[in-house]
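Hi R.,

Here are the chain sequences for the assembly we discussed:
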Amino acid sequence: MALPQRNPLAKHWNLDSNCVFLNHGSFGATSTAIRGEQRRWQDLLEDEPVRFYEDLAMEFMEDARKALALMLKCDAEDLALLENATTGVNTILRSLEFNEGDEILVPDHAYQACRNAIDYVSKRWGAKVVTVNIPFPIESSDQAIDAIMSGVSERTVLAMIDTVTSPTGLRMPFEALVGLLEGRNVSVLLDAAHGIGMVPLNLDQLGASYTTSNCHKWLCAPKGSAFLHVRKDHQVNIHPLTISHGMSFPLGDSTRFRHEFDWTGTRDISALCSIPATIDYMATLVDGGWPAIMQRNHDLVMEGRRILCERLGIEAPCPESMIACIATLRLPAGGGAGIPLHEPDPLHKVLQDKHNIQVPVWSWPSPEGRYIRISAQIYNHVDEYHYLAEALAEELGLN
Ligand SMILES: Cc1ncc(COP(=O)(O)O)c(C=O)c1O
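And here is the predicted structure of the full complex:
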């Protein structure tokens, strides 16, 4: 079968033409223009490294923070630029001090790498990890709110909440949850890895203690670009994982938080420097800019989900209001059971090698089964979901 067409906007990417790419969610994908932009920054750096780092880098990083702050509706001074959301989560967890018996709350849909960081830190301090089960399938956001709030106790000091969950693709009611949790003196660490560029974020209004998001996923910035937002009242307690010059640098009219996070040793900041151009460039690709991109991706993933449900004879596991631009479905035929979340199901390889489709398939314990997660980005076309549906029907013996 011939490979399906992509959206005409795919001409702005250089995605492998032999691949039906339905997994923007895992690592994003960067347009050709922004790949060129990053190379431009790398060249500028290597043309005169000393001038770049000593005279220019801080200004470039400030430009990136300002561009992000405009989109995130927050103070640029409250942002730290990092390589990825895992680093953002670790930065918070490993800066905080816990008392024995303190409780850290985390839903069972959390991203495993970030959950590992919670387990690591809890063990060191003698804190307790309270895992709450979020039902899946789920009927409403209220069910998620009830599940999470029922796990809060007098001892809860921190909760890690997702904007959009990785294994189950649920757009969480994070705005309401942040208000409820912070209102009970529980600091929220918002894992917004699937955040900027996927869902609108208004960080000052949101009021979460800590928010981290990847720019290399839904913003389509180059790999190794992310931010951490720390509310002003917490900044004195939060330090980068790498302690460097910033700790002793004369304060001037800046903050210790700024100094410490702006210099964590020599690193390639070309991806971070590319953020302002990425924000502007992507917005030119679709009439209506970023809000239109998010809406369009949402509509397309909903259509993709409908196509798969219909062809495979399965029910959608959550309402449309709990979908952003990724959607997870439980496949009708078993298989894959017992394979941990982070190992791909053999079906993933069959889809990749035999049908040229890149889409994640994994097992998930709650409830146990085999799951597939589709993504929608502006380069995708509805025909790609039809193609996936036919491939799945063939492999699952549903013809
Ligand atoms: C919910 C969630 N948190 C954190 C991450 C980690 O992102 P990174 O590997 O860029 O740190 C991911 C990646 O997929 C994710 O989905």
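Residues 26, 84-86, 111, 113-114, 162, 166, 191, 193-194, 214 surround pyridoxal-5'-phosphate (CB under 6 Å). The chain has a mean pLDDT of 96.

Let me know if anything looks off.

Best,
T.
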